[in-house]
Design brief:
This protein has 368 residues and is of the alpha+beta class. 31% of the residues lie in helices and 23% in strands. A hairpin with a 6-residue loop joins β9 and β10.
Length: 368
């Protein structure tokens, strides 16, 4: 039975009715002691009913609960929230023969971000050697790009101060967003583990921090193979790099059924660069249009030939299309938009197999 919270007036009237019945009164005079008591007790009861309503309807279940509630439900199902991770980088270090870079030596980025050397490195001759450094602090802010420079915090004899990032071993991510974690917990409730179904692979991949949307392609490279691809919606760009693909491959390998051959890959990006005549053609309206198009693709864009995990028994594959009617609808929904003409695309947008439609750079002109 659903919980229906009584109004304050209903509670007060109920208390007054109890007074009249219990004391054999015809009526209760306004501003009398009993009238004041009824209103005071009614207010207290109404507050308690509010706590009950919040606890049952808003806090208790993971679909509407706060952060604490979602974390608790996740813990019950052995599904912890993904923590922030640390960047791990390979750097090229120039030094003299015998120069020693001790484990724990500090490198510092131009903005003051610190990294520690993982293992001791000894320069065998005057040459360039490689060392692995790990960020001292977690989160995406610790990421660097190949060819970026970094310097020793304190001088070390025989080691050149400046080093260059040559490879990214582990790309750092921030802690999993609450709403992304909520989705994972709800998916666990709706789709219990089933011995290697597409939903299982989606759940496996999402145990890696940063992974938000996942697609599975059964028989991707032949019988007994499974293709897996994903994006990171909280990163720019959302298409993962090679290091992230490797991280997901290794994580899913430890969880998947032994018999399946897994192939993890980044989806092939098909950027949609719509040309739009817009009225009024203002910055605010342009930004609203871009926001609506991004929302459309976040909701509707699917990897072509991936299986629909909610209709596994029917073996329905996504065609990956973004219909031109959907694009026009999204533009029309933008706040402040009065009229528009979509110049390009002129037809539905469909990626290649294993591809995903993303938003590129819209071109806006004034509609007259």
């Amino acid at each position: 039975m659903a919980f229906t919270r009584p109004t304050l007036r209903q509670i007060i009237d109920r208390i007054k009715g109890d007074y009249r019945s219990g004391l054999q009164l015809q009526s209760i005079i306004r501003r009398s002691f009993l009238d004041v008591f009824a209103k005071a007790f009614g207010g207290t009861s109404h507050t308690l009913h509010g706590h009950i309503e919040f606890g049952i309807q808003e806090k208790f279940f993971p679909d509407t609960g706060d952060e604490e509630t979602v974390i608790r439900w996740g813990a019950l199902y052995g599904l912890p929230r993904n923590d922030a991770t640390f960047a791990k980088l390979t750097i090229d270090v120039t030094g003299l023969a015998g120069g020693t870079l001790l484990a724990g030596s500090k490198y510092v980025r131009a903005d003051g971000f610190l990294y520690s050397v993982e293992d001791e490195v000894i320069v065998p001759a005057a040459t360039v050697v490689q060392a692995v450094i790990i960020a001292d602090d977690e989160g995406a802010d610790s990421n660097m790009q190949v060819s970026d420079n970094i310097s020793l915090q304190s001088a070390i004899p025989g080691i050149q101060s400046e080093a260059t990032v040559s490879a990214i071993e582990v790309e750092a991510d921030n802690q999993e967003e609450l709403e992304d974690y909520r989705v994972r917990v709800l998916e666990r409730l709706r789709f219990p583990p089933s011995g290697g179904t597409p939903n299982d692979y989606v759940a496996f991949a999402k145990t890696v921090t940063g992974v938000t949307r996942v697609w599975v392609l059964p028989g991707h490279l032949g019988e007994g193979t499974v293709g897996l691809t994903f994006v990171e919606d909280n990163e720019v760009p959302i298409i993962p790099d090679g290091a992230k693909v490797t991280e997901v491959q290794e994580a899913v390998e430890t969880l998947k059924p032994i018999s399946a051959d897994l192939f993890t890959f980044a989806p092939t990006e098909l950027q949609m660069n719509p040309e739009i005549q817009l009225k009024p053609n203002t910055t605010d309206v342009q930004n609203a249009v871009i926001a609506e198009l991004e929302d459309l693709l976040a909701r509707e864009a699917e990897v072509r030939n991936a299986i629909d995990p909610e209709q596994v028994g029917l073996s329905i594959l996504f065609d990956g299309k973004i219909k031109i009617s959907q694009i026009n609808e999204a533009i029309s929904l933008a706040a402040g938009e009065e009229d528009h003409v979509l110049i390009t695309p002129t037809s539905d947008v469909q990626p290649q197999v294993g591809g995903l439609v993303t938003l590129g750079t819209p071109i806006f002109t004034t509609l007259v």
